[in-house]
Design brief:
Blueprint lengths: L7 E2 L17 H5 L9 E5 L4 H5 L9 H9 L11 E7 L5 H17 L3 E5 L6 H12 L4 E6 L16 H7 L8 E6 L6 H10 L2 E4 H5 L4 H13 L7 E7 L21 H13 L3 E7 L10 H15 L3
Parallel strand pairs: 2-3, 2-4, 4-9, 5-6, 5-8, 6-7, 8-9
Antiparallel strand pairs: 1-3
Helix pairs in contact: 3-11, 4-5, 5-6, 10-11
């Protein structure tokens, strides 16, 4: 067994759905057989609600990684040629900070091995250890960070929580501000003080309203990236964070804080496909899913479909 798995809990075998029908194979039957050495995409979960709890959010996000898996492994491998492995879940430690250390250690190993990490989160606090992994492996000035979120998540906090991860990355100079994108934020959720902070740093900002002004959701982001450093696309690695609070509750009711306004399901999929289209996307993560408040598995299934679309574009 590869030593990088020693601090992980293996995925429950019951989640690897199969029909035992060669004419209708499901992802659960394929992913469960893949070896780490041959994998291109590595799935890992971090089932921890402490970051949400610290900002007085509602419990349940710790159920997200396995809830998403349950839907993902029911899907077919149509269009997917990339080898995928499920590494399991980061074992909860005595503190959130220690759990982050374990996640950071694992993700760094995956990146150093030349593989892509797909991370199923709980709270958005995991953006800090994963962003730190990007900085440590590729260099603080050599990666782009994209936060698709209704909120900025740059709160000032004594302890890291699900609202402060990107503040720590910026304040600790682990990412260049002009290489960081805040996408689909909603003005009614945005602190004017934090907006000024990001604006003064030179962070790239695109609100939900600006996204909607384009024919397709990914065009705003695509244009922003092209204008500044599309010529660096081969040298800059990319990190995409999809906080599911960015979506409207009609399409994603099961989040840690739902809203009637937000991205539509199709717009979310377009942005995921854009992330997949960039050859140097190294990490894609999905956070703030809360199965306790989901309806008919609508949110977990939407994330699963996003994972499917991402994997289908990996060669």
């Amino acid at each position: 067994m590869n030593e990088i798995f020693q601090d992980l809990n293996p995925t429950d075998k019951k989640l690897f759905f199969g029909k035992n029908n060669r004419n209708d194979v499901r992802l659960g039957e394929i992913v469960s057989l893949t070896r780490y050495e041959e994998a291109q995409v590595v799935i890992v979960g971090c089932p921890n609600n402490e970051g949400v709890k610290r900002s007085e959010g509602r419990g349940g996000t710790e159920l997200a990684p396995d809830g998403i898996r349950e839907q993902f492994y029911k899907l077919t491998p149509f269009g997917i040629s990339a080898k995928i492995i499920d590494a399991g879940n980061i074992a909860p430690q005595n503190s959130l900070e220690e759990t982050h250390e374990q996640l950071n250690k694992f993700v760094k190993s995956v990146l150093k091995d030349g593989k892509k990490a797909m991370i199923l989160g709980s709270g958005n606090d995991i953006a800090y250890p994963n962003g730190s992994a990007m900085a440590e492996v590729f260099g603080a000035g050599n990666w782009l960070g994209v936060n698709v979120d209704a909120h900025f998540d740059v709160a000032i906090a004594d302890q890291i929580n699900n609202s402060s991860a990107f503040r720590k990355l910026l304040d600790e100079n682990l990412i260049r501000p002009d290489y960081f994108y805040e996408i689909a934020f909603q003005s009614h959720f945005a602190s004017p003080e934090y907006y000024r902070y990001l604006l003064n740093l030179g962070v790239n900002l695109s609100s939900l309203e600006q996204i909607r002004s384009r024919e397709s959701a990914d065009l705003e982001l695509r244009e922003m990236m092209r204008q500044k450093f599309i010529h660096h696309s081969q040298s800059l690695s990319t990190f995409f964070n999809f906080d599911m609070q960015a979506l409207r509750s009609a399409d994603a009711p099961g989040t840690s804080l739902s809203s009637p306004l937000g991205l539509r399901a199709g717009e979310f999929i377009q942005l995921v496909k854009f992330a997949a289209s960039l050859s140097n996307t190294k990490i894609i993560q999905f956070t703030e899913v809360n199965p306790k408040f989901d309806y008919d598995n609508r949110t977990t299934l939407l994330v699963a479909i996003g994972m499917h679309r991402y994997c289908s574009l990996q060669k």
